[in-house]
């Protein structure tokens, strides 16, 4: 399996930290009936998106995009040494899979010019920081870290009410180190990188569209978690803060890219995780690359 993709003048590397069973399909999607699951079981299993016990398989990864001008890391995954007691596979882990992945792509932490987070959930901010002498420091020393203002403000408010560990150990230390850019939705980098607001999963969730003057690739974060949501865009996972808004955003996103040449890079679909959106009945499919 190639971990490198091409789109226009972009080179895209996938850095996989884990590809593994996550939650039973009907737990992640409370509205998924046994009947619909049965109808889609074979296709999901063929796509390696479901195991024999109806548990969904998800990929946890970062995308690193080289434009002609910058090296941009999108969503920094799970991270090491972080207390995540409710998720044993993520809790206080110390493996070198992620750093080996970077190395395999020929990328050093110093090479990253921007880190951009689609949203501030635990599996999208983890490698923003690493533990050094008991302190959280930015993992990518030369990078500016881009957080959408709506998303940042939402989590800052939540963190004030009750500690949100990933915000405390993976976002605030970046701000304290003066590496953060908290930006509006009109933010852009040159003529290659733009923001597309995609609220619902979290209030300030955004996608990033990349490509010179056109959208060669879009990075959609947790706008969707499983290929099942292509066929049923209204299926919202239990983690969507506003499931109704997320469903609406999902369908309009899929309509926007349907039958276009834009490469859609999902955060969590099983490998190869990226493809082009096509119409299928009342829903969609993804022509995987
Ligand atoms: Zn996620």
What is the percentage of strand-forming residues?
A: 25-35%
Structure annotation, total helices: 9
Helix content: 10-25%
Order of strands, widest sheet: 1-2-3-4-5-8-9
The geometry reads as globular
Radius of gyration: 18 Å
Q: Write out the distinct hetero groups bound to the structure.
A: zinc ion
Q: Largest sheet at a glance?
A: 7 strands, mixed
Task: Identify low-pLDDT runs.
Answer: none
Ends distance: 10 Å
The assigned structural class equals alpha+beta
Averaged pLDDT: 97
Which sequence of SSEs, written as H and E, runs from N to C? EEHHEEHEHEEEHHHEEEEEHHEEE
Could you give the count of β-strands? 16
SSE blueprint:
Elements lengths: L3 E4 L2 E15 H4 L5 H13 L8 E12 L4 E4 L22 H8 L9 E3 L5 H4 L3 E4 L2 E4 L5 E5 H13 L3 H6 L1 H5 L3 E4 L4 E2 L3 E5 L8 E5 L6 E3 L8 H4 L11 H15 L5 E3 L8 E7 L2 E6 L1
Parallel strand pairs: 4-5, 5-8, 8-9, 13-14
Antiparallel strand pairs: 1-2, 2-3, 3-4, 6-7, 10-11, 11-12, 12-13, 14-15, 15-16
The structure holds zinc ion.
The site of zinc ion has 6 residues, from helix 4.
